[in-house]
UniProtKB/TrEMBL annotation:
Name of the molecule in the record: Protein MIX23
Signal sequence bounds: none
Domain of life: Eukaryota
Pfam families, per database record: MIX23
């Protein structure tokens, strides 16, 4: 993602690069969370049926850890989003004020 230049004005940068990038990353992370949540749910159901299976328990713990990491990544993405909009507003505030989406 390049900074706004003479060929790309602040409005185009905000609408087509910054907003699209944030929405895309948010969508991908949420999709990963949904898929991993489904795997964790399936493993929990299998675990309830077979409490003695240690490999199943290990796999469940592994997937739960992955899910926690993905959820924390969503929080990190929110911070990155806020900071990038702050920088954008500092650099482009005299040229363009983006609409609030939240």
């Amino acid at each position: 993602m390049a900074a706004p230049s003479a060929s790309v004005n602040c409005e185009e940068f905000a609408e087509f690069q910054l907003m699209a990038a944030h929405a895309s990353r948010d969508r991908v992370i949420k999709n990963c969370i949904a898929q991993t949540s489904a795997v964790v749910q399936n493993l929990r159901e299998e675990r309830e049926k077979n409490l003695d299976d240690l490999t199943l328990l290990k796999q469940l713990r592994k997937e739960q850890t992955k899910l926690k990491w993905m959820q924390s990544e969503l929080n990190v993405e929110e911070v990155v989003n806020d900071r990038s909009w702050k920088v954008f507003n500092e650099r482009c505030r005299i040229h363009f004020r983006p609409p609030k989406t939240e």
